Amino acid sequence: MTVMQPKIHVFVKQIIQETPSVKRFVLVSKEGADLPAFSAGSHVTTFLNTAAGTLERHYSLVQAPAITDHYEIAVQLHAQSQGGSAYWHHQVSEGTELFISYPKNHFSLSFRAKHHVFYAAGIGITPFLSMMAELVAQGRSFELHYAAKSREMCAFYETLQKTYRDSCHLYLSADPDSSRMRPDGMRQQRIGTHVYFCGPETMVNQFQEAARSYGYPQQSIHFELFAPPAPMLREPFLVELWQSKRTISVGSDQSLLAALLAAGIKSPYSCRVGRCGTCAVEVLSGEVAHYDSVLSEKERAAQDVMMTCVSRAVHNKLVLSL
Predict the structure, then answer these.
(1) 65-94: buried (b, 16+ CB within 10 Å) or exposed (e) per residue?
(2) pLDDT tens-digit series, residues 184-211
(3) Span 208-260, pLDDT tens digits
(4) pLDDT value, residue 271
(5) Contact 151, 157 (CB under 8 A)
(6) Residue 245: left if φ>0, alpha if ψ -120 to 50, beta else—which one?
(7) Where are the domains of the chain?
(8) Staple partner for 309: which of 53, 173, 218, 257, CB 3.0–4.6 Å?
């Protein structure tokens, strides 16, 4: 059996076309009540019933945390969509009903920071919208660096120019007069600055590595990925479940978590991208290829725990305590 998540019944009240490839969806409670409070950087999981089954996707909440009479999410249409963004863009209309999770936050603001610096690329702008609104309300300092292809493809351009003009730096790759977003701007930040990254995996990795090389402590570096990191090892493998007395196979294009859920094994999870630690399981035997961002180097070396949503077997078999 799988773990049931509490859900909220909502409907789509309004759809706003932010850019040719990004739509903003306003979600309202079906019961007419306020929605649960959330903290800056939170996301919800959406559950859409389709002919192919339930589509489960995660989207950042983009409005100010003080607003709870509705939620707003933004969805970018991806050319290689496996159903999620294509369904939102082509099948969802105003009035569509769906279920969502309660808000969860794996990318929260650090209130130890003396200054916050946000780096976003493309749809990676979304978690920073609620963060900036929260920081403005509290009178705290921040700056945003945001890379997009062009003015037309820059999601939330009007909002950024109207509300955050003095704190916002835009980098438009199709504009010959625009500079490129580079990590070396982090060198000049004052002590106590925290940096936050959201965008494609290559961009996030580049900026993380740069921040560490500039001397930022690990606790001052924050990031979020919208998709799990691409594993270097993709070979299928077997998993022996010690308590369940079962053996299941994990395909080359399948995560261990997906295989466990498909087999009906009770498997808690949340983020699905190796960021939260909810899906951690005890490893009794076998070598793990770790792709999460939860475990320390020492914990990885111990080889006694893994995140089922992203990590895999180095060889052909693992034994887990499940």
Answers:
(1) beebebbbbbbbbeeeeeebbbbbbeebee
(2) 999 999 999 999 999 998 999 999 999 9
(3) 999 999 999 999 999 998 777 777 788 999 999 999 999 999 999 899 999 99
(4) 76
(5) yes
(6) left
(7) 7-101, 115-224, 237-320
(8) 257
CATH dotted code for 115-224: 3.40.50.80
Domain 237-320 classified CATH 3.10.20.30? yes
Q: 273 Cβ partners below 8 Å, 6+ apart?
A: 225, 226, 227, 228, 229, 309, 310
Q: Which residue has the tokens 């409670």?
A: 29
First-to-last alpha carbon distance for the chain, in angstroms, is 13
Q: Which amino acid is at 171?
A: Y
Q: Residue type at 202? A: T
User: In which residue are the tokens 């920073």 written?
Assistant: 128
Rounded distance, CA 153 to CA 315, Å? 44
Cβ distance 116 to 109 under 8 Å? Answer: yes
- The three state secondary structure string of the chain is CCCCCCEEEEEEEEEEEEECCEEEEEEEECCCCCCCCCCCCCEEEEEEEECCEEEEEEEECCCCCCCCCCEEEEEECCCCCCCHHHHHHHCCCCCCEEEEECCECCCCCCCCCCEEEEEEEHHHHHHHHHHHHHHHHHCCCEEEEEEECCCCCCCCHHHHHHHCHHHEEEEECCCCCCCCCCHHHHHHCCCCEEEEEECCHHHHHHHHHHHHHCCCCHHHEEEECCCCCCCCCCCCEEEEECCCCEEEEECCCCCHHHHHHHCCCCCCCCCCCCCCCCCEEEEEECCEECCCCCCCHHHHHHCCEEECCCCEECCCEEEECC
Q: How would you classify the pairing of strands 168-172 and 246-250?
A: unpaired
Which CATH number applies to 7-101: 2.40.30.10, 2.40.170.20, 1.10.10.350, 3.40.50.2300? Answer: 2.40.30.10
Short-list 13, 81, 10, CA closest to 45: 10
